[in-house]
Amino acid sequence: MIEKNRLTRKIKIGSLVIGGNSPIAVQSMTATQTQDLDVTARQIEILEQAGADVIRIAVDNEADVKALKFLREKFPKPIFSVDLQENYKLAPKVAPFVNKIRYNPGHLFHLEKNKPIREKVKFIVNAALSNDCAIRIGVNCGSIDPDYKEKFKEDLIEGMVRCAVDHCEILDDLNFMNYCVSLKDSDFDKVIDANRRFSKERPDVPLHLGVTEAGLPPEGIIKTRIALEQLISAGIGDTIRVSLTLPNEQKGEEIKVGREILSDIEAGRFRSVPKNFLEGLNIIACPSCSRVENDKFVDLAEEVRQMTKYAESHKVTIAVMGCRVNGPGETDDADLGLWCGPSRVNLKKGTESLGSYSYEEILEHLKTELDLIIASRVDQKSAMS
Question: Is the pTM of this model over 0.70?
Fold first, then answer.
């Protein structure tokens, strides 16, 4: 059952209140290039019609800011969250058009590298204060701050938690309390662990939950459901997002699935995990967003799933990532990774680059590498027996 008396404080995101005993909010993100006004407007319409409590839009440059202004004028009612990406300097320019600013601590080092992190956070806080915006500190396993990644290389979950806690302390010191936190990973066990650790240390801070790059349905739904069932039933979680790899016209399914999961937890309907779930092949795929440079990667993810059916019993992780932000980190941790660009797909084996191929060529090369991994593991087993 959903814990009614959650310990988190209440914060305001526009007219929406989250935290404490407020209803758990369901949100999603536009999966389009923000500057493409027609398709982004269509995404907002789809998510609004699906009943999204918050709609997140990514902004990475001045042209995106101009597009965001247009979108806010066209859609004055929805609660908008902006994803600052790697350009925190845009905060005061986007803040007038949104209700929440999300920044990733792992991205703050990209711009003005000699400036202290605290000064950059203060810059964002000042923009939020001037425009009555909430803030989300979004810590992501695929783009963790390099300092924390190095310091906690033996326990990256602890690195994520420490990073989040430290940024909470910065905002607290700046007397800014209207913030929440997210700690996301593509592994639902790590999401559960990270959020439990953080909640134990900072039970007052509202948490946004999600399994990032959960991938295609139904596996992506199952991964997310496992994490949410474990956390929400323990009183952890104030907003959620179900990150699925779907065609743009179907993005409203993220909201529908999120509400179904919350309804099931509220009613005590916990779904059992299929026997041996993810003991074999595991395909990680991002849900698409405005950072994606070629929508073909969504079709490619489905093609990868179909092509690899013969290897379902083998414990291999394949990551299909659509952008340069989380692509490197997620593919580094996978056995094989496809990091998709505008016209080429980078094929990786762990951290090793294996080459760049066209979207038409990549499946053949992926299959070759997958077969080599399977063969090498079969040989290892034979040698040990």
Answer: yes
